[in-house]
Automatic annotation (TrEMBL):
Keywords: Membrane, Transmembrane, Transmembrane helix. It comes from Synaphobranchus kaupii (Kaup's arrowtooth eel). The chain crosses the membrane at residues 7-27, 33-51, 63-82, 135-154, 166-184, 196-219, 240-263, 269-292. This is Transmembrane protein 26. It comes from the Eukaryota.
Length: 318
């Protein structure tokens, strides 16, 4: 019980710390203290932590994670502001240090003095010297890694098995990799500041992030609970597959394909990786549509024998 309390608290504290770092970065970039008010978005997460610890002993819910949703609400506005600011000021951010080699990292963190006073005095200068795109990419990466680790550490909700949690975490890893690749690669295709394209990419990214609070891709009703006959029973047995198809078509690969085709056709941007990932999204969409057709066909074949079976007659002779 104590371990569950500790994991629940540490997870939410990690969420809050990363959100505060994002707010601090926004304040530093915009050079305006008013952006500190973004930190007030962390208050609902604190309230949720208190309620969950008191009423549910730290346990998460079965199909939904309020802590992850509130974490996304606290961090997404900061990333939006940083991305938009970076797109508007690309040409003015030439003098910076990139984190693309061990040598550059060593130069950034190297100090002539090792006293604590000197370190705290120059910490702002050290972090400010890192390029804006590396800062934003780091926030994206930390956000996705923390979502996976946070879900792992959060106490299991009622009815969730460890097997289901491991499957869910594997799905989270694949989803996080696809989302990070989409945002980093597609935003690099914005050659000049185009508000419409940037808003579209960030909007799709935000929409895709809403997958993480939901657990319907794995956590479903048990097969033994679906004993009813007819199409309702088939729908229950296939609920995991149906949710996976919905996620791919309407939340992830479908929107990704639309955006990449827009970049290719409307914005006339062409390169190998963009074409490759567009083909990859197209294949995933087609395969999920094929999977949906197979499920529908299986549903018909499973219900036909029941509907066509005649009522047995009494054939005994009088």
């Amino acid at each position: 019980m104590i371990l569950k309390f500790i994991c629940a608290i540490l997870t939410r504290l990690s969420f809050i710390i990363l959100s505060i770092i994002g707010v601090w970065r926004v304040k530093h970039v915009k050079d305006d203290n008013v952006f500190w008010f973004l930190s007030l978005l962390c208050l609902p997460l604190v309230v949720e932590m208190i309620i969950t610890l008191k009423r549910r002993k730290g346990k998460d819910y079965k199909w939904f994670s309020p802590a992850i949703l509130l974490f996304l609400i606290t961090i997404i506005p900061s990333i939006w502001i940083l991305e938009l600011h970076h797109q508007q000021n690309k040409m003015q951010e030439l003098q910076c240090k990139k984190l693309d080699s061990w040598e550059n990292i060593a130069k950034i963190i190297s100090l002539n003095e090792t006293t604590a006073r000197h370190i705290f005095k120059n910490v702002n200068e050290l972090v400010s010297s890192v390029c804006a795109d590396d800062w934003i990419l780091g926030l994206h990466q930390c956000l996705l890694v923390l979502l996976i680790l946070g879900k792992w550490l959060l106490p299991l909700g009622g009815g969730v098995t460890r097997d289901e949690l491991s499957q869910l975490l594997l799905i989270f890893v694949g989803t996080a990799a696809d989302i990070l690749e989409f945002t980093s690669e597609t935003l690099l295709d914005v050659k000049e500041y185009s508000p419409q394209l940037v808003y579209i990419i960030l909007g799709i990214w935000t929409w895709c992030m809403l997958q993480f609070p939901l657990h319907l891709a794995v956590v479903t009703s048990r097969p033994e609970e679906s004993l009813e006959a007819g199409s309702d029973s088939m729908l229950r047995r296939r609920s995991t597959a149906m949710w996976s198809i919905v996620e791919s078509l309407f939340i992830q690969d479908g929107p990704f394909l639309v955006v990449r085709l827009t970049v290719l056709i409307h914005y006339n941007i062409f390169h190998q990786m963009l074409v490759f990932f567009a083909i990859k999204n197209f294949l995933v969409v087609i395969l999920h549509l094929y999977w949906l057709c197979v499920i529908c066909q299986d549903s018909r074949t499973s219900t036909t024998p029941r509907n066509s079976t005649s009522i047995p007659c009494n054939t005994d002779e009088a």
